[in-house]
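[Meeting: bench + compute handoff]

Bench side (C.D.) handed over the final construct sequence. Compute side (W.E.) agreed to return the predicted structure before the next meeting so the bench team could plan truncations. Sequence as handed over:
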Amino acid sequence: MNRIIALALVSAFASGSMLAQAKTKGKLVDRRDQAEGWYVLVHGQVTVDGKKADSFEMILYKDNVELGKLEGKNGRFELELDIDQFYTLRITKQGQQEKMLYFDTKLPPDLVKYPDYECYVNLQAPLADGTDPFYTDFPSAIVRYNEVMGGFYHSEHYLSHIQTRLAGVSSATF
């Protein structure tokens, strides 16, 4: 279990990583079946009212099974998510509304080079009175590979819909 958490939730990466080299210096393989350990690298920034969150908690789930918890600091986090999997990331901070992000890490089978995903999460005050709490059980964003855009992106349509439903909560970031 600790090995899974260490692989999935990472705060710093070794500069000599083979996969990091594959993404930054060119292809080392022509097909994914030529190497093991393919993952999506997520660089995250968490803010509260536009300022770096000094501390927050993250809980990572894979297929709705909790993998582990990690305390975030200085408003930053990094994740290595295995490809062709489904993850949910809950980000919480006392006194703030929690955010959930859903990651679908499926990639086209021939793809061996793809950009990291940059993730910006703005935590907000608890919901205003009269706001329907039903929609707080849904992820704030759904992230998946977009072949047209050539990378991992959140669905703008979904994000807009959820923000509209949470009438008192609106932000340009999720």
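W.E. noted at the follow-up: The radius of gyration is 17 Å. C.D. will use this when planning the next construct.
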